[in-house]
Design brief:
This protein is mainly α. The protein is built from five helices and two strands. The mean pLDDT is 87.
Length: 116
């Protein structure tokens, strides 16, 4: 199974390298449209290879998606933690009640009651 995983990683790596080699030309990346940039009297722009823009966009999308999903699942994680706390509380109560049930009995008889 791990060989399949290594094969998939190799295929993705080759695909990314092919995209990078095919898109090496420099592009001008502008942060603001020209009309909006005139209002602020700034024109933030940078010249980058196109593959950096493509791969950076993919990475940013993945990161935003992971954060969005983590925030979305907060309620489910909180509910699971609440249920785990309740289960631990109930286990402690069962242990306490078993101890009260066998209070004053012979230890051997109490062990036999617990097992069967």
């Amino acid at each position: 199974m791990r060989y399949v995983r290594y094969f998939c990683i190799a295929v993705f790596a080759i695909a990314l390298i092919a995209v990078a080699l095919a898109n090496r030309e420099m592009v001008l990346l502008k942060v603001l449209p020209a009309e909006v940039a005139q209002w602020f009297a700034v024109t933030p722009q940078v010249s980058l290879p196109l593959f950096v823009v493509i791969l950076g966009s993919i990475l940013a999308g993945l990161l935003i998606g992971f954060i969005w999903e983590w925030i979305r699942e907060y309620g489910e994680r909180a509910e699971a933690a609440r249920q785990a706390r309740e289960m631990r509380r109930l286990e402690r109560e069962v242990a306490r009640l078993k101890g009260e049930k066998h209070k004053g009995k012979d230890e051997v008889l109490a062990l036999l009651d617990e097992t069967g």
